[in-house]
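Continuing from the previous page of notes. For each protein in this section, the sequence appears first, followed by its structure tokens. Read the first protein now.
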Amino acid sequence: MFATGAKNNQAMSCLMYPNGLPDLERMCRKHPDTPVVIDHLCRIGLDGAIRDRDVETLCAMAKYPHLFVKIGTFYALGKRQPPYTDLAPLIRRVVQAFGARRCMWESGYPDEDVQHRYTDSLDLVRRRLDFLTEQDRDWLLRRTAAEFFFKK
């Protein structure tokens, strides 16, 4: 799949946990031209705990220039409560490692088991992450996905 993805510019979309990163790293090393997207911040904090080793392992993947990270599904990570600002340190580290041009916001909706609002997720990026510039927000909310998925 990875060889075909590189040949045809088809993204590997990875819904995974941090313990899968070593295997993904092996595939990225073997197929460095394959576009890869890690969904849901690699589910770091799904059990409520944001572990430094998981964040460091994810951020180390930034050395692969065709690897991107979706920033979102905040309702399922960390404290799981709006305004989701407990996730700001994690998001900051990921954006610093990959750059805003390789990160894209995702809503994670619809999810029928979730009682959280779409606007709360969007509001975290639009108004509460004070380390982001307006240009960073534009890349996260619009441009990264537009360029990745539609300008190939």
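Done with the first. The second protein uses the same format. Note its length before scrolling.
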Amino acid sequence: MIEELKRLAPTNEFDYLFIMSILKKYKKPRDKLTRLIRSGAVIRIKKGIYAFGPRYARGPVCREALANLIYGPSYISLEYALAFYGMIPESVELVTSMTNKRNKAFSTPVGNFAYSYLHPAKYPVGIIQCEIDSSRHIFIASKEKALSDLIARQGSFSGPETLFTHLTENLRIEGSELMNLNKKRLREIADIYRNRNVTLLSKIVRKGQ
């Protein structure tokens, strides 16, 4: 049973509908699922979301893919996205995402996930789809949106110089990384966010601080 499931599953991560489509030929498929979980062959991430246990997994569970599945609509952003892109030097264990629903946090067997509310009008701009591998595509903030989401939640900066100092000294983002941000995309985000910090960031990048 587990071997068939492993053969048919495109990734380590799958949902309730998928596993039930495999187990439906058995009597009491839900009992079968319970036994798979108790044996450790399958891990319950949260209600309706599952992954193979270590013995059967094809490599590590993809937490980025799980972040999109656990609570949605959502996209990965903030510190985790910045670390994903290599913009900040620290590794980030908490998978941070934005959602147009209410704030939510989940503690799971494969790590912790946090979701922060973003107004629906601001939500779509700057999201990209990133290919992890041939079977996994995730929704994640572009570099411009991830940084905008982060600084929009921080206290207002007095001007471009203080924001630039914060980004390069406190967040330790390389100045060259900032200057390579997409000016057009950042301007589009700033126009929709209407947030002082995001507008300052757009000006810094546009003028080449």
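What the second structure shows: The longest strand covers residues 111-117. The radius of gyration is 20 Å. We return to this in next week's lecture.
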